[in-house]
């Protein structure tokens, strides 16, 4: 039976993620945390992303997994905002479709999201993307974050983070303006930092 009470909504924006989405979803299904739902926003993928998601849902019918299909590709920021519109949880967690989460990802994040903290963020250990730019960013950000002396950030990556739904809505979520797209993460976390500190948690990968 599906959980009627949902504490956390995990939102995964996916565009042409056929090569990575199965590993991503399976890592979420392996979480040692209860009372969460998975919302996958299929951002008008042209590959087999949708078919893979449907196949997983048929096998894992007891887990709360929702697909939101977008007719026109609108980018990851807009996809995240769309996913939030369907979220039942008071807490939002975001994971990119080419990321694989540790089994205790949600448990660690939820424990660290305390009063005075507007978001908890991390990176990821396993890069399952073939993009050279994405892989370069992965190694650069991992090196930076693991050598942080101050565990509070001014900005962070949107590939792996958790925040309260109320705070997300209060700052109007991610900007879908194409002019801010190259700096969408910086723009969002700058606004969210007005609600509280942005905390880096290395264990939540």
Q: Which structural class is indicated by helix and strand composition?
A: alpha/beta
- Our estimate of the beta-strand percent is 15-25%
Biggest sheet: strands side by side, in what order?
3-2-1-4-7-5-8-6
Q: How do the SSEs run, as a string of H and E? A: EHEHEHEHEHEEHHE
Number of helical stretches of at least 4 residues = 7
The rough form would be described as: globular
How would a crystallographer describe the biggest sheet? 8 strands, mixed
Helical content band: 25-40%
Extract low-pLDDT stretches: none
What is the distance, rounded to the nearest whole angstrom, between the alpha carbons of the first and last residues? 28 Å
DSSP strand tally: 8
- As a whole number of angstroms, the C-alpha radius of gyration is 16 Å
Whole-number average pLDDT?
86
Briefly say what this structure is:
With 205 residues, the chain is an alpha/beta fold. It has helices spanning 21-29, 49-59, 76-85, 105-112, 132-146, 165-170, 184-192, and strands spanning 8-14, 36-43, 65-70, 91-95, 117-121, 152-153, 160-164, 197-200.
Describe this structure as you would to a colleague:
By secondary structure, this protein is an alpha/beta fold. Helices cover 33% and strands 20% of the residues. It has seven helices and eight strands. It has helices spanning 21-29, 49-59, 76-85, 105-112, 132-146, 165-170, 184-192, and strands spanning 8-14, 36-43, 65-70, 91-95, 117-121, 152-153, 160-164, 197-200.
